[in-house]
Amino acid sequence: MKKLAVLLPTYNAVDYLPESIDSVLNQTFTDFDLYVYDDCSTDNTEDIVSKYKDTRLYYRKNLENLGIAKTLNKGLEELLPQYEYIARMDADDWCYPERFEKQMDFLNKNQEIVMCGTQGYWLKDINQNPISAWKYPTREAYIKIYMLFAASFGHSSVIFRSASFDKFNLRYNENISTCEDWDLWIRVAKMGHVANLPDFVMKYRILENSNHRSSGNTKRHLEERSMIISSYWTNFGISFKPEQVYDYYYGNKTMTPCDFIIKLSVLIKTFNLLYANTENNFVIAERKNFSYMMVRRILDFWKRSQVSRFDLLIWKVILKEVTFMNKIKLLKSIIR
């Protein structure tokens, strides 16, 4: 069995594709093959790829546009039986030369890990070289709780262990069109161990017309997120319907103070229970970040409700009912 295959789907991305391919072919770890899966592009993607003479580069083109999830699954069906590991890469992203070397070294030393991601910089200008950025969680316990609120992995950064994907029949959900990665991460984390390296070895290009950022996909994206998160809450013994998740996380309905307080109390009780059931799994820094993350969710929900921030009754409810943060820190968070 070969060592590593890189699965790179593309659709009409010739403006960025060469940079992505070059960054992969310039890796310090060289024992891999790169597969470009063209989802029936109408630009000159095929001409661009054909100019490369590297024997590790393979090109596949769909006869019709299948969408990202089906294209990725098509790649997995071909590559999983042939390669020990599958790395993901997107046509508009860029990876540092040491990316594969660091991940493969980690995976070889930690055989229980099913999927490994990294840190990365989110940039409108891929030529920028930042010196700091926010981080995905690295420890498994916090990764799993973080997925209740965010995806926890950069899609382009992950490497899968093929044997585990085959054993548990892990594939992308083809009914999800905007956050198929988040859904997969949740199912992977149920079946095996996951990790993120602390190393910044990726650059993600921020494009306003990308699949989940385009204005035409916004509503569908948030609805799909809500469905995924709703299902994941049950892992923690808590039931939130998709419409409740949408309301608490993303909705912009104007509420009366009375209606808002009722919903706010449910959210606070849920967060209190979640924290009480999981806090012993975290180190001190994670517990702090977790509590602040939940407070930010509460305050964001308050802001979107259009209920006045000067309503003292709501201040009283939050200060009285929140138990996962001490009152002084909580008060400071509300004031800010």
From TrEMBL:
| Pfam families the UniProt entry points to | Glycos_transf_2
Report the protein name in the record. Answer: Glycosyltransferase family 2 protein
Q: Which GO terms describe its molecular function?
A: transferase activity
Kindly state which keywords UniProt assigns to this record, in alphabetical order: Transferase
Please list the residue ranges annotated as the Glycosyltransferase 2-like domain.
6-162
User: Which SUPFAM superfamilies is this protein grouped with?
Assistant: Nucleotide-diphospho-sugar transferases
InterPro entries annotated for this entry? Glyco_trans_2-like, Glycosyltransf_2, Nucleotide-diphossugar_trans
Q: Does the keyword Translocase apply?
A: no
Keyword Iron-sulfur in annotation: no
Source taxonomy: Bacteria, Pseudomonadati, Bacteroidota, Flavobacteriia, Flavobacteriales
- Source taxon at top rank: Bacteria
